[in-house]
Write a structure and sequence with these properties.
Blueprint lengths: L21 E4 L3 E3 L12 E8 L6 H7 L1 H13 L2 H4 L8 E8 L4 E8 L3
Antiparallel strand pairs: 1-3, 2-3, 3-5, 4-5
Amino acid sequence: MVQHPEIVLVKKPSRKNNTDFIISVHNPIFQRYTGNEENNTFDIIRIEIFVRAYPGDMLQRCKVHRKEILDSAINKLRGSKSYRKFGVPINFLKLYDMVLTKDNCVILSFCLKTE
């Protein structure tokens, strides 16, 4: 029995698709090497991306979705206020390392190009 027929509760569809490979992208972490005392610089930027677990070879699956993983990391960097304060364009960065952990986290490390 509906008391207020003008009020209808509708569940919004989820924004995330359960078949998406990437679950979440964490904010970038800016790190300096030991001895670098400059507070307004960075040596490495790390971004953690959690991916959905699937049976089988996760390393191979990450290789297949490499472009999607990199695009997600770059979009997260572009939207980061912390990154924008450095004033470094995205094309000055290169992928330094990409690691898949046992808990299905891909850790991307970026550094400045040395050209």
